[in-house]
Amino acid sequence: MTQPTAQGASVRAAFIAVTTLFFAWGFITSLIDPLVAAVKGIFVLTDFQAQLSASAFFIAYGLISFPAAALVARLRPVPAILLALGMMAVACLVMLGAANLATYSLVLLGLFGLASGITILQVAANPLAASLGKPEGSHFRLTLSQTFNSFGTFIGPIVGGILFLEGVEVAEGMEITPEVRANALGGIDRAYFWICGLLILLMLFFWLSRRTVSAAAPEPEATPSVGAMIADVFSSRWALLGGAAIFLYVGAEVAIGTQMALFLNMDQVWGQSDAPFAVPLLGHVMGNDGNPGVSLQEAAKAVAFYWGGAMVGRAIGTVLLARFQAAKLLVMFTLVAAAMCFYVFSVGGVSAGFVALSIGLFNSIMFPVIFTLTLERSTASQQATSGMLCTCIIGGAFIPPLVGAVSGATSYVTAFIVPMGCYLLLCLFALAALRSRPARQTDSMKSVH
Q1: Contact between 73 and 220 (Cβ < 8 Å)
Q2: Are residues 248 and 330 in the same domain?
Q3: Do both 50 and 166 map to the same domain?
Q4: Structural domain of residue 203, as residue ranges?
Q5: Cα–Cα–Cα angle for 377, 366, 416, nearest 5°?
Q6: How many domains does the chain have?
Q7: Tell me: the pLDDT tens digits for 257-313?
Q8: Model pTM?
Q9: Where are the alpha helices (DSSP H) in 265-392?
Q10: Helices within 31-137 (DSSP H only)
């Protein structure tokens, strides 16, 4: 009895160590939103130029994921995680240089470096979290880890807004004083200095926990080349389907989030209404400025509830996935999200604002469930499949411009038809998974699937 208990404690400790990574990369990723607004004012950029900050981040997923998968396969998870954390710490030093030299190109380089490290973490940590325990609990564990990732994405914009945006104005005709500019650059410097320290502490933590995590990690598969992994992926129908699903999910989620404030600020939604201020927690966070209707700044604060909904939904999903079949839950969540988008598109009005914010609640389980359903059904290696799924996070760089083109030609309300289409396609993926048997099925998984 002693040995299994000790082994179980070792696996739990390894899972806790891996879950800290989910929080860290969620926090770092969500700093992009306030950073885009800050660099627009600091460096006097156009909207397109400022959005290059987000592009530099998401493009890393497309360029680095397969090399990262080969690296993880060659080095094993723990050394790859240590290397990724080291890369991210160096990228933070580049961000410090960007802040002190006031050079936007260094900001882009630093963000690409951070995202490259995060990509390696994603490739290593997602299957690791799914594997650290009994097979039937893989959906539960990955969703639990993603809940902590959502907590990081929830608090990141708050911290970034405090550090980056004090006194910064980006409206046309507004100029930033040298004092405000220096303060904003100092905020960027302080933020990435402390992040660098956090990453060094995580490196130390993983170095001390390396034997525990390595012992609990799944057995290594053969180490393929990047070309071999790409060929492996294209030989697996489910690896391709899963990649397409991740592309659609990330693209829809990011597209809704990036346009949410502008949507809520519309006169047809909340722009002429004080109804949101009557909702206790929402009204408190938004902070009524005393003027009728919801201003753009107040609407931007409300967007926190879109991302917070994903955090709450993942906590609830963790419980649901312990009781219900993952593919069935994914069918339900994608259908509800599509219906909510259709409501916004077809009905509009004040109620559409509340419905749109609630979509985050149903986005919650999609990434971890798509990931684990694909890993189970893919005939490609785990490294190749994980690399494909992480590569397809680049959907966050392609679908938002499409939504922007639709909203520019019509309205922010009409643009919800694009994510609605994404969710309907994701529902088809979930239905296909429901009818398909896992390729990596074990006896313990048969009781669940």
Answers
A1: yes
A2: yes
A3: yes
A4: 1-219
A5: 130
A6: 2
A7: 877 877 888 889 998 999 999 998 888 878 787 878 887 667 777 878 888 888 888
A8: 0.75
A9: 280-286, 296-302, 304-321, 326-346, 350-363, 366-377, 382-391
A10: 32-42, 47-75, 77-101, 104-131
